[in-house]
Amino acid sequence: MWSTFFVTDEEGRTVVPAAGGTVPVPAGASQGGLTSLMTGRTTFGGNKRRRTTSMGHMSEAQEGKIKLAFFVAIVGVVLTVLGVGTEFWVELAPSKSFYNNQTCLTAHYGLWKGCTKTLWVTDIDPERLSCGPAELPGESNCTYFKFFTTGENAVMFQKTTQKNLNIAAAMLALFSLFLMVMGAICITMALSKEILFFLKPASFCFILSGVLVLLSLVVFHQSVLALLSSDHTVPLHHELSWSVSCIGCAGAVLIVGGILFVLLALPYSPWQKCLPHKDSGS
What we know:
Radius of gyration: 34 Å
Transmembrane segments: 68-90, 167-192, 204-228, 240-266
Main location: membrane
Structural class: alpha+beta
Helix content: 40-55%
Pfam families: Claudin_2 (PF13903)
Keywords: Membrane, Transmembrane, Transmembrane helix
Strand order of the largest sheet: 7-6-5-4-10
Membrane topology: Multi-pass membrane protein
Number of strands: 10
Oligomer: single chain
Number of helices: 7
Largest sheet: 5 strands, antiparallel
Shape: elongated
């Protein structure tokens, strides 16, 4: 293997020793070659660094904004879990004088199970015509629906549920929860790897999950209307309960969180684009 050494002649020029003497080397070339050899920098490495930078590393200010938007999305996730896991989506109640005794019966259910509750008429507001609300103390009996096991419809106050609509509402809610988990994973990777690219799939997951949550609420309301119209023997009063409020707020918050991630993923600030800063000298 041949080795090349750079030496300096009497006039201070850098030369390369050869078989028949020395060959002068331009100063810029020798310094550039030595610099590249000493530092190990090449054009390929420079292009690689430029490609990595083009993926969008975040600054501390961007990281703070992402964490704030992630907190908004987490609020939507918590509200969704609270609404999906509880059975206070709708309350059904006949007139408090329907049974002509000291007690009356009310029912409330959600996506997974339904509950019937026996209330004392004396505990009900005298101005209220129907039995309820379900939050009053009384004897409660809750059972899970057989939609997902034997495929049987549930019967409440001689009215039959529409299992297809109930199953559709439950599946939409579960798929929305899956998208929320995927969005949270993308944000976690964006914060850990400091790459803005993961904000785009996260925004898609959160926006779509918010839309599916609201769509699940619409389908569930249609299932309630189908239940009420299945039999008119027992007149019932129905009202949506607080679990529905959680679901509605969750859908709105998730969509807002997804929009915030879209704005943070843009290569420019939308506020500076819409309202450009004017130079003071102009």
